[in-house]
Design brief:
Largest sheet: none
Number of helices: 12
Order of helices and strands: HHHHHHHHHHHH
Length: 313
């Protein structure tokens, strides 16, 4: 059974509550500079209501269903919190020029602009877009496996998973990077046919009010799914480090920890393609994706040891 804690909170509730408290403090600090602080607080109030309802109704459900009832709605809220990142990071100058320059210095080119040109057939486009879209299914598969097959370890896995996700979100709030699909579109809009030469100019707070992005040519079903998802919910934020790489890496570490080799190796091809796809579709600079690996390892280590320390109390 899940280990009892003060207030009988499971990991999904505890980590979400901590995130709500931290970001509420941030809203208070930046109140006069935020575009919609009341709306942001309202979302947190609704989230707390959802937590209260699921917390006090799970007792009438079978055990595993009750665990899912208390945690899955809070996973869904990750999509809800995503626009908040743009509100926060728009308070600071964007740093895309730094990361574009890093890619140029390290690799001698802009991989995000050239990768899809090297593999421009419909086959490669669909493969990489499938990989990018498999992000959601990869994470869900690992969490569902813990719920159904490693129930005793489910609470810890959720703590590591959500804790890592929230650490990425907090980091993004203070390191504004829009990503190449937004940055190079902005440079085209700002400089036009004159171009920007060999430099990578800073754009300041341009992305606070501009959401134009490079839209790739759609060559198949998965390409359409990715473009559609980006048109609905993508924001010029959260590019460094890549959370697609980071959270899929955390999920793979959790998959490895189950000891089930079938789970790990079935997911591995999707994971590799996913990591490559972040650059292919221009969502991230290559340095973003590489950094995502290291941030994932660090956040996994931090959340694992916080959980172990907390449960020993």
């Amino acid at each position: 059974m899940v280990q009892k804690r003060k207030l009988d909170l499971v990991s999904a509730e505890l980590t979400t509550l901590v995130y709500i408290v931290l970001t509420t403090v941030m809203i208070a600090i930046f109140w006069t500079r935020l575009d919609n602080p009341l709306g942001m607080l309202g979302l947190r109030g609704i989230a707390l209501l959802i937590m209260a309802v699921t917390h006090f109704t799970y007792r009438f459900m079978p055990y595993k269903l009750g665990l899912a009832w208390r945690s899955f709605p809070l996973f869904a809220l990750l999509i809800w919190w995503y626009p908040d990142i743009h509100y926060f990071c728009s308070l600071f100058p964007y740093q895309d020029h730094v990361f574009a320059a890093c890619d140029q210095m390290l690799f001698g080119c802009q991989p995000a602009l050239e990768f899809d040109q090297l593999f421009d057939s419909a086959f490669w486009s669909e493969l990489f877009n499938m990989g990018y879209y498999s992000y959601y299914y990869l994470m869900f598969s690992v969490i569902l496996f813990y719920l159904l097959c490693r129930t005793r370890e489910y609470d810890q896995a959720v703590f590591i998973f959500l804790g890592s996700f929230y650490l990425f979100y907090i980091f993004y709030d203070f390191v504004p990077v829009a990503g190449p699909q937004f940055y190079f579109c902005a440079l085209d809009n700002l400089y036009g046919d004159a171009g920007w030469g060999d430099s990578f100019p800073a754009v300041g707070d341009y992305f606070k009010d501009h959401f134009e992005m490079i839209v790739p040519e759609v060559k198949g079903v998965f390409g359409q799914l990715v473009v559609g998802a980006q048109e609905i919910g993508e924001r010029p934020a959260a590019a460094y480090p890549s959370s697609h790489v980071g959270m899929s890496t955390v999920s793979m570490l959790l998959a490895w920890r189950t000891g089930n080799k079938w789970l790990f190796w079935i997911l591995m091809p999707f994971y590799v393609i996913l990591c490559c796809s972040t650059v292919y579709i221009k969502a991230h600079y290559l340095i973003d994706s590489i950094s995502g690996l290291f941030f994932a390892a660090a956040f996994y280590y931090i959340t694992y040891h916080v959980y172990e320390s907390y449960c020993r109390r």
